Amino acid sequence: MNRLLNDDPRVTASTEGIDEHFDPALESNYVCPICLLGLREPVQTQCGHRFCRNCIVRLLRDAGNKCPVDDVPLSESGLYPDNFAKREMGMFTVWCRYHKERGCPWKGTLNELESHHKECPKFKTTCPKCKEKVTNEELANHREKVCPKERIKCPLHFMGCKEENFIPEVNKHIASNVASHIHDIVKAVKELQIKVDNQAKPTKAVEEGARGGQKSSAGYSGYSEDRLFENTILLQPDLKRLSDRMTRLETRVIDLEGRVSNGTFIWKIDNYDQNRARALN
Fold first, then answer.
1. Engineering a disulfide at 161: which of 22, 123, 156, 277 sits with its beta carbon 3.0 to 4.6 angstroms away?
2. Are the beta carbons of 110 and 94 closer than 8 angstroms?
3. pTM, whole model, 2 decimals?
4. Please, are residues 53 and 130 in contact by the beta-carbon 8 Å criterion?
5. In what order do the strands lie in the sheet with 79-81?
6. Mind listing the pLDDT tens digit for each residue in 123-142?
């Protein structure tokens, strides 16, 4: 075991103790006297002191064979892995590394920390395409709208636009085709308005027939209140689909507007709010 300590090429100046936010703070016997951080791969000396494995090995190689605490003669062969201290360290409570900086509320054991960081929305990860560092919660938006190595479709692909390219090229395509895209959106909104009007006509006919029946049984259209209710229910799925599509169009409009000119390009579809409200009712 000690020979492994002597021969391990990983013992370099790059590794120190565990610099995490422990709560409560670590007791002194779990703090390395050399780096003043939590014990990482703790070892114990023959004279009873604990150190981070790499810290003490590096010190012995650089400063001579003696314990830095009490100057007792010490060599690498006199270091022993402290498995008890290692288990204890793993059970101590820590905050997420991004608790203070970015507001992550997670708190758990040191052993659980790395697993949390893989899922933490505030943890910085690497975009698999462009290798830029972004937080987990930003990654989806980054890949959809920012990453220069990501291929995407034009936001109006569902309306027939065939453009598919890297994000910077799609943004250029959007900027150079604003007029035609707006024309397509206006056309789609008008078509939706016609569909909404056509869907609403049967319901209005039923309502008018029912009202006529209340005034005169001879002029009653034959629709009962139950039939009116049934027709209304049958129309609801179609109206819901139209409403959802109207909402998607609205989202695409806002997105297109923001992409082209960062919010300074303002345009308006006549009676758009009224048309959307009619689809929702």
1. 156
2. yes
3. 0.49
4. no
5. 50-52, 42-45, 79-81
6. 888 999 899 999 989 998 88
